[in-house]
């Protein structure tokens, strides 16, 4: 019987950078990375958003107040790091501002700035601390591959993010650093429940109907969970994950219909 190759040992001096650390995905990811022995630089736009993470994990989590939509974030992140960065996780959310016929061009520009330029700012901040075996992980989304009538901003931004991940893969691959895109489907989070409440009210349906309609798009009839996204993130720490360089990993509970 074959024995699985263990993940590369982690040392207390190694860091991860998690952007959007206070959100549903981020909280679950931070918990997984801390359990793996990484120190987490938790990034958010306000210190209040990071208080619960600091309280839960002590000095394993270092809060960093920075806005990745601005170039000033690069210096703020770089000055907060103090050792090898094993993993970058870029997972900020963007507002769902309507469909392509009514969303403002400003909203699309802001979403692309946060998702695409934000990742570039974070990667450039961490660049001096990256080493062979480091991972750059962007959390995009199902709507970047399967557009919907009501989510133009995440659709356009996440499609652009997938392209950037491929470009970063070629730029950093020669250094032994791999880049990955995680593409969750609609996830069972408080944010989605707020969206469901608004959509149900505007369309004259119940929230239960909203979720029933959404689940019909899944081969499994269910939503993705933050813990599943956190599992996939931690999985990429394994040395075998080198083979996934530049790839998009669909975590959409069977929603993707197109090929490839």
Plain-language structure description:
40% of the residues lie in helices and 17% in strands. A seven-stranded parallel beta sheet has the order 3-2-1-4-5-6-7, sandwiched between helices. It has two domains: 15-186 and 225-245, Rossmann fold (3-Layer(aba) Sandwich); 188-223, no CATH class. The protein is globular and about 55 Å long. The chain is built from eight helices and seven strands, in the order E-H-E-H-E-H-E-H-E-H-E-H-H-H-E. It is of the alpha/beta class and 260 residues long. Helix 1 (24-35) crosses helix 8 and helix 4 packs parallel to helix 5. The two termini are 34 Å apart.
Which secondary structure elements does this structure contain, and how are they paired or packed?
Elements: E1 15-19, H1 24-35, E2 39-44, H2 51-57, E3 61-65, H3 72-80, E4 85-90, H4 105-126, E5 130-139, H5 152-172, E6 178-184, H6 190-203, H7 207-215, H8 226-235, E7 248-251
Parallel strand pairs: 1-2, 1-4, 2-3, 4-5, 5-6, 6-7
Helix pairs in contact: 1-8, 3-4, 4-5, 6-7
């Amino acid at each position: 019987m074959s024995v699985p190759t263990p993940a590369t040992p982690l040392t207390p001096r190694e860091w991860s950078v998690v952007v959007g650390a206070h959100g549903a995905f981020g909280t679950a990811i931070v918990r997984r990375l801390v359990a793996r022995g990484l120190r987490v630089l938790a990034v958010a736009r306000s210190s209040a958003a990071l208080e619960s993470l600091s309280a839960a994990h002590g000095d394993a989590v270092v809060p960093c107040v920075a806005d990745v939509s601005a170039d000033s974030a690069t210096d703020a992140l770089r000055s907060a790091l103090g050792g090898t960065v094993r993993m970058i996780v870029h997972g900020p959310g963007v507002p769902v501002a309507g469909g392509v016929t009514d969303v403002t061009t400003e909203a699309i520009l802001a979403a692309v700035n946060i998702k695409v330029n934000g990742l570039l700012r974070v990667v450039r901040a961490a660049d001096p601390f990256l080493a062979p075996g480091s991972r750059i992980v962007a959390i995009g989304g199902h709507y970047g591959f399967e557009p919907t009538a009501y989510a133009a901003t995440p659709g356009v931004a996440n499609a652009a993010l997938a392209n950037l991940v491929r470009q970063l893969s070629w730029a950093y691959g020669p250094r032994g650093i791999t880049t990955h895109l995680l593409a969750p489907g609609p996830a069972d989070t408080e944010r989605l429940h707020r969206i469901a409440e608004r959509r149900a009210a505007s369309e004259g349906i119940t929230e239960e109907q909203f979720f029933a309609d959404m689940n019909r798009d899944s081969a499994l009839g269910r939503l993705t969970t933050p813990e599943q996204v956190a599992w996939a993130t931690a999985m990429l720490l394994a040395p075998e994950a080198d083979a996934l360089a530049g790839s998009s990993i669909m975590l959409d509970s069977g929603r993707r219909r197109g090929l490839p």
